[in-house]
Amino acid sequence: MSLVHHSISIHFVITLIKAAKRKGLDYELLLQKANLNPHMLTNSQLRITPNQFSKLMRELWIMGDDDFLGLAKQKCRHGVFTLMAKQAANCPNLESIFRHMCHFYNLITDSIRLDFKLEGDLAYLSMKVIDPGLDPDFSLHEFLMLVWHRFPSWLIGQHLPLKAILLTYEQPKHVGEYRLMYPCPASFAQDSNTLIFEARHLKMPVVQTSNALRSYLRRSPIDWFTRQAYYQVFTQRVVSYLENSEQLALTSMDDIAKQFHVTTRTLRRKLNDEGTRFQTLKDNVRRDTAIHYLSQPNVPIAQIARELGFSEPAAFTRAFKLWTGVSPKIYRASPKR
């Protein structure tokens, strides 16, 4: 069974469903198509799979015929991004991609304004949302800033390192999700929404083919939500080890320290310096693995418990309720019409 070892906060589902309701869309059908249920929206602790969130966003794009998810001054008809992407794939390098994106969106919509500039050794891609009051939870801000980074990175075939991201709104309660979204420090309450990176990267050539782009667009937006979390060095190494462990439940810090050729004390100190703990990382991997199994209705809960190393389903249920606030059975409850 193929797993993606991270999950997404239900916060983003809640904000998109609020937008769908404001637009009069059938939000129950949206949830059903994403294999989600309305009960989930009442518990802010819950997390879902990238696949579930991608299905929800894709259905919202189609149902509302709006790439801006009903959160902007005017619709951006579904398919506009595809048109921009096909043109961007013919650009020679990263700089021309950013300039093309700015010219394209500034030409076709009055909902956002994109600006690209160079100052010394740094490059800046900035976005202004013309009517931010229509995006009260800043979901469109977050999503578009993510896309402006990840799509160009895909075109050049490698992750574009960011120096910083600036955002115009106050730090949100779900700021912990930003390690999954942006590979850099985030600063809030700034004058603009801006990606900052070293100008030397701008000559990186476009390497993706038209065939690859067609496949990428068919999958979208799943690739934007399945990138690895942007952890610091030792945290990333520990998470990767846990994700690939065949006996996750039995893996200890001693085991990992031995594989890293350091003492357990040194590993603990390194993790503390990066602001995390081994048990927290292990619980998060087990939680996210459980969520991915539970998103597949044909996998029995008893089997999931065994896969995660629990002696009995009841022990798994207790742990899952501690992680998410609900039982596996309630989490998996099928959406009904």
Protein model, in words:
This protein has 337 residues and is an alpha+beta fold. The chain folds into two domains: 78-225, no CATH class; 233-332, Orthogonal Bundle (Arc Repressor Mutant, subunit A). Helix content is 48%, strand content 9%. It contains 15 helices and seven strands. The chain has helices at 10-22, 27-33, 50-64, 80-88, 94-108, 139-156, 178-181, 210-219, 233-244, 253-260, 264-273, 278-294, 301-307, 313-324, 328-332; strands at 8-9, 47-48, 112-119, 122-129, 164-166, 186-187, 193-198. The strands form two sheets. The chain has a five-stranded mixed beta sheet with strand order 3-4-7-5-6, with helices on one face. Strands 1-2 form a two-stranded antiparallel ribbon. Strand 3 and strand 4 form a beta hairpin. The longest helix is centred in the middle third of the chain and has 18 residues, at 139-156. The protein is globular. The chain starts with 7 loop residues before the first strand and ends in a 5-residue tail after the last helix.
